Amino acid sequence: MSQTLLDLIDAALATVEDPEIRRPITDLKMVKSREVVDGVARVAVWLTVSGCPMRDTITSRVVEAVGAVPGVSAVEVELDVMNEEQRKELRASLVGHDEREIVFTKPGNLTRMYAVASGKGGVGKSSVTANLAVAMAMQGLSVGLVDADIYGHSIPRLLGATEPPTMVEGMIMPPQAYGVRVISMLAFKPGGVSQPVAFRGPMLHRALQQFLADVWWGDLDVLLLDLPPGTGDVAISTAQLLPQAELVVVTTPQTAAAEVAIRAGMLAQQTKQRLAGVVENMSSFPCPHCGEPMDLFGSGGGQMVSETLTRELGTDVPLLGRVPFDVRLREGGDNGTPLVASDPDAPASTVLTEVATRLGTRARGLAGMSLGITPAGRL
Ligand SMILES: Nc1ncnc2c1ncn2[C@@H]1O[C@H](COP(=O)(O)OP(=O)(O)OP(=O)(O)O)[C@@H](O)[C@H]1O
């Protein structure tokens, strides 16, 4: 009888996923032992590191899964910590190789990659990226988000993902929020959020490389990168490290913002990247009193960027959506609750979700790619 009960307990443990790695703890060899004495199940679990921030979550998941097995009256969980050998084995089983390489550039990798760019700061690029990531995760996609704005990182706050990552044998397990794996410079600053980052160009490249190679991303459907504004070092490093990443340009409706956004988009011509499209943010919204459309930041910027880039690059660069100005989007960013999660039916959420659906399911091909050829004929 106890054999049958143990089988049931094993089956229950196989449903418990490690919250960071998102694989069954049985596959990860995290179950040290299990036994049943008079209906009381005792489960010992190996944690990867002693200060594992997920210890309580793992414990409660084990208690819930094993406690639901008929015949189990109580569950006791004991935690132990893996030794170096076990961690190495775990690392090898997860990564499949030892050297630090960027998995996204390996042949056969199917992760869709989007680098979100803007011409200038403050147009809402980070807010759009964070909400797109959460919307994609809410659609069941496995999503990673790199805050490539090394100096001005803001993604952890926008998603409330400010806890430090767990390290397993030099591999960084990224914190998660709303189902999105997030890495940012915050994870590497002992002085916390207000500590400035004083990096020169080559250091920025190295930091980005580390975000991509040393972080355990798992099998991602989509990787989003929140670039710093403009066409500086990080935008170029991204193109070098992830040449398959497509650009998404964010602008406001304002002509001045649109003009600089075009420059950010034109970078694709030099880097030979594809342009997935343009998102206009802080667009027209209905006046709360009279319902008339309010164009707080002018109008037409997104359309202008889309049309100009289409013409200049000789390829379709669609306007993916116009996200209305919404104070709740700003408030959600301030308190780490993205609007698409807190109010999925808000007009801004609806647009962001549509853009997320489009990008998350987009077929990969030559569309949107500047071929870098000049038409033959009269000069
Ligand atoms: N659609 C919107 N409606 C209202 N407020 C918005 C909207 N989009 C962004 N904001 C607010 O605008 C400000 C700038 O947004 P955000 O930080 O996302 O811009 P950014 O382009 O990433 O800036 P930077 O690159 O300089 O960090 C934030 O306070 C944000 O909450």
Automatic annotation (TrEMBL):
One of its GO terms (molecular function) is ATP binding. It comes from the Bacteria. Residues 9-77 form the MIP18 family-like domain. ATP binds at residues 119-126. Keywords: ATP-binding, Hydrolase, Iron, Iron-sulfur, Metal-binding, Nucleotide-binding. CDD domains: Mrp_NBP35 (cd02037). Pfam families: FeS_assembly_P, ParA. Binds and transfers iron-sulfur (Fe-S) clusters to target apoproteins. Can hydrolyze ATP. Homodimer. In the C-terminal section; belongs to the Mrp/NBP35 ATP-binding proteins family. Belongs to the Mrp/NBP35 ATP-binding proteins family. This is Iron-sulfur cluster carrier protein.
